[in-house]
Fold these 2 entries.
Entry 1:
Amino acid sequence: MKIHNFSAGPAILPKSVMEEAAQACIDFNGIGLSLLEMSHRSPAFEAVMEESEQLIRDIIGLSDEFAVLFLSGGASSQFFMVPMNILNEDEIASYTDTGTWAAGAIKEAKAFGNIEVVASSKEDNYTHIPKQFDIHPESRYLHITTNNTIYGTEWQNIPDVHVPIVADMSSNFLSRPFDIEKFDLIYAGAQKNLGPAGVTIVILRKSIIGRANRYIPTMLQYGTHESKGSMYNTPPVFPIYVSMLTLRWIKQLGGLEAMDRRNAEKASTLYNEIDRNTLFKGTTAVEDRSRMNVTFVATKDGLDKTFMEMLKSAGIDGLKGHRSVGGFRASIYNALDLESVNALVEVMKAFEQQYA
Ligand SMILES: *Cc1c(COP(=O)(O)O)cnc(C)c1O
């Protein structure tokens, strides 16, 4: 039976990517070696690094003012690496508190400068994106989490503010076009929308590298990785390779415009059913609904388990909501096909017929 993978992360990857990655583990490009047992300094892997970076540049339309880094430590390490590298002790940075991950970024940043939380939706259990906020005139940057994976909200527009934006894009990276000029830095753990866990993409303006004047361990300096093409030490070769395959797939399908159309269609199909179906309701403000993580609950008590069982027998996996929200979460990242959303909608309809 085909399994429809709605996992929040590590998450679905294109089938063609998985097949090519599997082959590379046996024999990479016909060289007779597995990708997993080759030197990262070999010409074959250097080509992978080069192509990965170039694809990111092409897909986003990055100018030479930006550097692209492939780092370890997950998006969570960027929570501290960002302020450690670009914020001085006596400077102010502004943060928005829109969910668990955003709050994590705030917590870590506090160790490195004056952090002002300019807006929070915590009191509403993070069910919306705050839209009114004032940023200190001397703030260095505004940090936002563009998509809140756990709560299912997304910034539909990158705000127009007087400071550069720093964004955690882990769960909607390359899912829609965005204006890179508004940003100083973007980071994204690969395992939501790009590749396997183990690599984090950091895109930053070269002009901010080395900006903070504190002591920073070598491995935690952006400059170390920028000057060595992300090969100061052994990079996460397999996650980078698989990410490269996904990047090729995105480019081949038509880039961010194509992802945008694809994701909009899937999201509207699913939200339309949630709104139509008397047994379900969405958990977030309609205008802030995420196109990547669709959160909803049952309107009648005691039916969650039954619905989960129906999903299971239809081969639909990964719908259990995050433990802090409950209910259901369908993660419909780039690689998920409309066909899978349609399969989910069919089960929702059958569920309503039987239990409404
Ligand atoms: C999953 C996630 C993280 C944590 O990523 P790790 O790579 O596991 O550290 C951070 N931010 C967002 C928005 C996420 O979805």
Entry 2:
Amino acid sequence: MRFNTRLIHAQQPADPLTGAVNTPIYLSSTYRQSAPNRHRGYVYSRSGNPTRAVLESTLADLESGRVGLAFSSGLGAFATLLEMFPSGSRIVAGDDLYGGTWRLFEHHRRQFGVRVEYVDLGRPGAAAAALKEPADLVYAESPTNPLLKLVDLRTVARLGHAAGALVVADNTFATPARQHPIELGADIVLHSTTKFLGGHSDILGGALVARERKVGERLAWLQNAVGAVPSPVDSFLVLRGIHTLGVRMSAHEASARAVAEVVDGHRAVRTVHYPGLRSHPQYVLARRQMSGPGGIVTIDLRGGGAAVRRFLRGLKVFTLAESLGGVESLVDHPASMTHASVPRAEREAHGVTDGVVRLSCGIEDPADLADDVRAALGRV
Ligand SMILES: *Cc1c(COP(=O)(O)O)cnc(C)c1O
């Protein structure tokens, strides 16, 4: 089956009990046993829940992996993943990361003696230099949050494997509708399903998908041991969001292109970061690695923080809020919001200055979004 059909049918049979076409929400924390340890596969909902199980096998299918696991948030998934790496482990991570990911890496570095090195994995030379020495984990976002830098996942996976590392890709921005890291060589894909997969800004969720069963079983053990699992209702809502991922991503991209055309070359804008523009330094890689550039456009305003405040006051359709990937357009100021936990010097060293604004383009009429951004830039 092709991808848009798999979104709706893969691993989602009609309910075997009733024929319901939608996966029922099994609100039960526990399951009757006919004798001690005699049961139908479900014992306790931290270990497994039938609604979550359908979501998990759907995620595995969409990401071309063997094992899918759902979590209570993206960071819940990431924290569980980090449990795999004892003190002394060497981790090579990208240098432009979601702020919460960076914060937890730093916590593990300080608290547990894990070695974390941040490298611009978008530069193959830098990745190769860092992976000359053995490593246990390579962690890459592509595209990155918020600067939409790309990592050549095939090359980095090859380098990571040669260094003996497990290679993990955060595929939150691209989604499986636009990029398949496991097919490019990654061992594990991570998601914040809060974003495009959920798609409606109404739940928190996360996911890990493992290419190999053995890695997946280790993660499944940790998922149960740590317990950062989603509720059955949230599992259902992610499944429901997944059904429309194909049409939503096309609409997000139409909006993002309309917005990118307005900001590209505008006198108030110093830099535009959007992999769908020819001016993006990795445009060729984007065309090769992704089937579309996605729905996020990041801009750097010339006037810094003061210009950002004027721009934000001028927006009528975009809502100032954290998060992204929902049907409604959202605007974020990383320096003071999503990435405020990263110290200024570190942030600015890799380009997240006070003028940076991240636009999550929703599925409203693209012309309204373009008008909104044009009018707000006019006030800068
Ligand atoms: C939001 C986000 C996360 C964290 O996910 P939560 O669901 O907020 O815990 C991780 N990675 C990326 C790229 C994100 O955008």
